[in-house]
Each structure stands twice: as structure tokens, then as C-alpha cells.
Amino acid sequence: MTSSRRDFLKIAGASALTMMTPAIFVPAWAKDVIVIPPGQGLALKKALAAGRWAMTVDLTKCTADCTDCIAACHAIHNVPDFGNPKDEIKWIWKESFASVFPGEQNAYSGEKLQKLRPPVFCNNCENPPCVRVCPTGATFQRPDGIVMMDYHRCIGCRLCMAACPYGARSMNYRDPRPCIAKINPDFPTRSKGVVEKCNFCEERLAKGTLPACVEACRQKALTFGDAENPRSEIRRLLKTRFSLQRRVHLGTGPQIYYLL
Amino acid sequence: MLEKALHGSLRYRIWIACLILVGCAGFFFYLRQLDYGLGITGMSRDVSWGLYIAQFTFLVGVAASAVMLVLPYYLHDYKAFGKITVLGELLAVAAVVMCILFVFVDLGRPARVMNVLLHPQPSSILFWDMIVLSGYLLINLVTGWVILACTKKEIPPPGWIKPVIYLSIPWAISIHTVTAFIYAGLSGRSFWLTAIMAPRFLASAFASGPALLILVCLILRRWGRFDAGEKAIQALAKIVAYALAVSIFFVGVEMFTVFYSQIPEHMHHFQYLFMGLEGHHNLVAWMWIFAVLSIAAFVMLILPGVRRNEVWLALACIAVFVSLWIEKGLGLVITGFIPSPLGAITEYHPTGPEITITLGVWAAGFFLLTVFYKIFVHVRGGTDGSPCGPAVDKMIH
């Protein structure tokens, strides 16, 4: 058989094109589907479950100079400390009231309001823009509302960081492992080049414990619970107290409520 | 036809050697970036996109501009463009290759890039951008190459090429629209959240791309033994003038809405751009260069006497290209992140490795462009006079 260079190039080109065909065109029977019957999943029986997880932050209890929640969260989740703001990774941190709620403060606001340092973290939005824009599905929403990250699928395009109206996401601009003070073997460390953020401690919920920040708060300022359950503590608080959500006019449906 | 690129004058070989050198320097620093991570660049937690994505955005426009040659020639039988439509298509190929390279070097985990196709997300604009960009690359590569090959053999191009050429027209609009939608759909970034983003992108694209083509035509006329024809160059210059006018108008429209309505979170970005914000004014000088250059170029291009002077035309085109590069390749992307959603102002300073990688990608694109145009001039050599070679012209019309 003789084949010219032209034929070879044609076949090579066609093969390259076939490899680029998106997976949507793959017939359903050709996909590997593993069906886990109900009750046999990885979730343990004692796992905490909810219709929609949400959190309240009681700003009358939260003290400005306390950082217990940050320390607990960052230690448990292997968040590195690079020592520079450029590459910084943070899941939960504190900001001034004016930064967190632009427009909710005026020139005559009392010292009490000006001195507040509300903790900020991922709002685990009901309608998350980061999930909408992610080109690979690496960030996705669970039925209980938690916005998750798949560190193994993320390509590091950082479109989610541009889309997040809360600045809740951090990129691993370099290898985080050498800069983690003490590695917690129960939670994965990340590799360079992927984005990460607060996950409402889904790994702790699965084991039946509350998020680390909630547990670490000595002032009991943080309350975590099911926003869809009318009898939950969080619903009682939202019914009786005045609350603010960050940039709620953007339609994201943030699930962190700040009580005043 | 590729072998034609292997021979050339001393000047040609020096130019190619320079491009390869810059490309290799970029590749060297890219390997370092792969090793260390994107922390090697000036990008930060607050300004999470920088030079790479800005170049990508600018070059999508250059790529889309091929339509400004294809449309008048194939839809309106504007014969003067017959000789240079292939130049436009090959420019589009080189520009799209640069776009793809810029997105690629910007990825934190480049080895996983195929996840976009393995786990397609139709709700993601970036997924659609990948589809339209690769489609546009294919369309222009095929049409440019087939027409060129047929010109060389002096045979009419195959009939199937015509619908592909027609398809390239809406497709060119789509690549820049989809790219604009990446920005215009983000609720948290008030600087980009404007319905005029896609029209603005298209207007600046139709000025910057043809301006580059005019420069190429002038260079080829002087040193490349190829004359595109004065009529074609002047027609392109008019296209640049009008597109630039619309482009400046659109920027003005944005500024009116922002400054008359006086909504602070919309104003801050423009204040940062043109006046500086809270002592931060990295881009102010650049933006005033943009303002002065674009208006100067517009004045030069609307005055027929100035426009017909080769030197002034070249200067005007350089001014157009540079000013729109500043506006889109520098100001538009970075300013979206300043101030941050929490009101912090973090300045962005591209690092040496980042700039070298950026130049490396540009060098790769210009290498492709030079090789394409070298082949083009070789094929066209001697067949000047009729638009695309008589056979091609007969098939199209």
C-alpha cells in the first residue's frame, strides 16, 4: 500500500479532531456510570443534613480583635501562610464594617458600628455566580446549598474569582505545602494552580460535627443551621433579629446573615 | 507551500531569528512559571487576571477584524479587497493562535485544559469561547490556505469553500461577542457590567485589526514585492477611521452614564483609570496616552490629504494600534479588579518573567504571521493585477 504525505496528514488531522470532540457527544451507554444505591453512600448515619445550610453572625457578640474562628479554620483546612498579601490564601478573615457593607454606614454612624470587624467568608450562595461561570464544573453546588470545589478538576482559569462578588476565593499562586505550619492529615492539602475557598466544613458535617469556626467561637456569635427548617435555631434568630446580607441586591442569595 | 518560508533575504532571516530568540526567552520563563506557579507573575488575590488575559482580549479583536475584508469582498463584490482577503484570514489565524496561547499560559493547571471539553459546562461563557475560537481558527486556516493553494496552482477553488467563507462572517462577530460576555455577565464587577461591552469590543476590533493590516500592506509594498493597491489601503483606512470614531464614542457613552449617574461603585473604576484613586494611579499616564493617541489618529484619518500620505497613514495606524492596545490590552481587564469587591485598591505590576512570556507569545504569533505572509508574497509574486487570480475571482462571482 502506498500512501502519500497528504493522506497521512489528512488521517492525522481527522484523528486529532475526533479527540477534541466534547464529551456531550459521547453516547450515554459509553460513559462509566457508577450508581450508588440510597443508604450505601459514603455519608455516615450520624452526618448532619439540611435542606439549605446557612449561618448567622451575631455582630453584637463578635469582638473586633478576636481571631479564633480564623485560626481554627485555617489550621484544620491546611491553609498556607505565605507571608505576603499578593499570594495570600484565606477562607475566613475580618474586614471593616464599611468594606463588608458598603452603603450601610454613613458619616454620622456611631463608633460602635465603625469599630466592628465582621468576619467574611464564602456566602455559599443560593444562586452562585462562580458555579455558573466555571468552565469545567470544578466548582459546583450540592443539593443542601454548599458550593464545593473539586481540586482535581480545577484548571486554574480564575474566572470564578472574577465572578465572585465577595472576594471569597483564593488562588494557589504557588505550592502551598511548604508554607503550612502543621499539616492536618484529615483534610487534603492543595497543589499549586487551583482555586479554593470556604466549604462550610462539609467534611465535618459528614462526621456529625459543626463547622470549625462555629465551634471555635467563644462568644457564641456564629450559629449554623438549616434555613429551610422553620424550627431551627437559625430561623428563630432571623425571625427575631434584624439581619443584613452582603450585596444581596446582586441576586446571589448569600447564606450568611449578619445580625445587628 | 511551506518550503517557501525557508528561503529569504538577509533582512527576513534576521527578523525570523529575532522572533525565535524572543519566543525561546518566553518559553524559558514559561518553564519557570510551570515550576513555581503563577506566583511568578504580578497577579494577586485581588487582581487575579493580568497581562495574559488582557492580551487575549485585545487579540480576539485583531482576529475578528478579518471580517472587515471578507465581508466587502464576498458579500458586496468590492474587488479592491480581492488581493488582500487572504492576508486578513491569515492574520486571523495568527491572532487566534496567540489568543489560545495567552489563555493557556494563564492557566494554573495547564495539563488539565481538556477538562473544558471532557466536562463541558454550557452555562460557562469560557466553554463557549473555547468552541468559537477553535472553530474560527479552523475556518480561517482552511479558507486562507485553500485559496492560497488554488492561486498558486491557478485553478478555481473547490465549491465547498464558499459556504465556509460566508460562515466566517457571523463567526467573526461571535468570537468577540462571546469574549465580551465573559466580562459583561459578572454581577460583582461593575466596571464590566455593561451591555455595551460587546459592541465596544467589536468597534475597537474593527479599528485595531485593519490598522495592523494597513501597516502590513505598507511594509509589503516597500520591502515585500507586493502591492495591495492604493484603493484597498485607502478603503481600509476609512474603515479604521469610522470604527475608531465609534470606539471613542462608546468610551464616551460609558463615561457619561457613569459620571452623570454618579453611582460610586461604577465611578471608582473610571476615576482610577483617568485620575487615580486614593493615591493609586498606575494606569493614569497610560490612559491619557490612549486618549491623546486615539483622538490624534482619528483626526489624521478623517482628513483625506493626511490619510493619502503614506507616512502619515502609517503613523496614524501605529497610533490606532497602540492606543487601542492600551485601552483593551491594559486598562479594560486590570481595572475591573480595582477596587476589589471589598473596596481594597491593589495595584498590579507585571513582573519580568511575565512580560517576557507575554513577548514570547507575541513573537510566536508574529513568527506565524511572517511565515504566512512570506508564502503569500511568494505565491502572489507575478500574479498582481487581478484580485485573487482570475480563476478564484470567477468562482466567487
Which terms summarize this structure?
A: Alpha-Beta Plaits, two-stranded antiparallel sheet, 9 helices, about 25% helix, B: mainly alpha, Formate dehydrogenase/DMSO reductase fold, globular
How is the topology of this model organized?
The complex is a heterodimer of chains A (260) and B (397).
Chain A: H1 5-19, E1 53-58, H2 68-76, E2 92-94, H3 97-100, H4 111-114, E3 119-121, H5 129-133, E4 139-141, E5 147-149, H6 159-163, E6 170-171, E7 195-196, H7 202-205, H8 212-216, E8 222-226, H9 233-240, E9 243-244, E10 256-259
Chain B: H1 10-36, H2 51-64, H3 67-76, H4 85-106, H5 115-118, H6 125-153, H7 161-184, H8 197-223, H9 230-261, H10 264-274, H11 284-302, H12 304-307, H13 310-335, H14 352-380, H15 390-396
Helix pairs in contact in B: 1-14, 2-4, 2-7, 2-8, 2-13, 3-7, 4-6, 4-14, 6-7, 7-8, 8-9, 8-13, 9-11, 11-13
Structural account:
The complex is a heterodimer of chains A (260) and B (397). Chain A has one domain (53-259): Alpha-Beta Plaits (2-Layer Sandwich), CATH 3.30.70. Chain A has nine helices and ten strands. Chain A has helices at residues 5-19, 68-76, 97-100, 111-114, 129-133, 159-163, 202-205, 212-216, 233-240, and strands at residues 53-58, 92-94, 119-121, 139-141, 147-149, 170-171, 195-196, 222-226, 243-244, 256-259. The mean pLDDT of chain A is 88. Chain B has 397 residues and is mainly α. Chain B is 72% helix and 0% strand. Chain B is built from 15 helices and no strands. Residues 383-391 of chain B have low confidence and may be disordered. The chains are: A alpha+beta (260), B mainly alpha (397).
Briefly summarize what is shown.
The complex is a heterodimer of chains A (260) and B (397). Chain A is an alpha+beta fold. Helix content of chain A is 23%, strand content 13%.
